[in-house]
UniProtKB/TrEMBL annotation:
Pfam families xrefs: Acetyltransf_3
An annotated Gene Ontology molecular function: protein-N-terminal-alanine acetyltransferase activity
Protein's name according to its UniProt entry: Acetyltransferase (GNAT) family protein
Membrane-spanning intervals of the chain: none
Record GO cellular component, one term: cytoplasm
Domain of life: Bacteria
Record keywords: Transferase
UniProt-listed Gene3D superfamilies: 3.40.630.30
Segments forming domain N-acetyltransferase: 1-125
Region annotation Disordered: where it falls in the sequence: 130-150
Length: 150
């Protein structure tokens, strides 16, 4: 079990493992931010091992983390950023209920050049996806909200 004492779960940031059938598939992370110095938001991220990509695990993990943060904190906004060439992550964020807000120009120096980024967000009042029974397989037939449209 992770606690704020070991540095994995904290009031300002944290990391949680993504587990599939008792195997570690990667991790999700969150960190706090604020545009005005007083209104807090979360920024989330994900890293999956290559063999777990393209299986619907990423969007569900991000949706579950987002739902958890909305349920347990008072923030109104959760955001995520990705690279323009990372089409898989863009689709994953959209499936997780995030909306593209725009391009962040020259936000990162990578591979010898300044690169743009895409900023996505989900607000507390935005409709979220149906994630299901807490597993990466989605809702079970017969459960409220199942089967998933995704």
């Amino acid at each position: 079990m992770r606690t704020p004492d070991d540095g994995y779960l904290g009031a300002e940031d944290g990391r949680l493992m993504v587990v599939v059938e008792d195997e570690t598939a990667g991790f999700v992370s969150y960190r706090s931010g604020s545009f005005d110095g007083k209104t807090k938001y979360w920024e989330i991220g994900i890293a999956l091992l290559p063999e777990y990509r393209g299986r619907g695990i990423g969007w569900r993990a991000q949706a579950m983390l987002t739902d958890y943060l909305f349920e347990h904190t008072p923030v109104v906004r959760i955001q995520a950023a990705t690279h323009p060439e990372n089409v898989a992550e863009q689709k994953s964020l959209e499936k997780a209920g995030f909306r593209l807000e725009g391009v962040i120009r020259a936000c990162e120096f990578r591979a010898g050049n300044y690169r743009d980024g895409y900023l996505y967000s989900r607000l507390r009042d935005d409709p979220g996806p149906i994630v299901g029974n807490g597993s990466v397989t989605g809702p079970v037939d017969g459960e409220p909200g199942g089967p998933s449209a995704y």
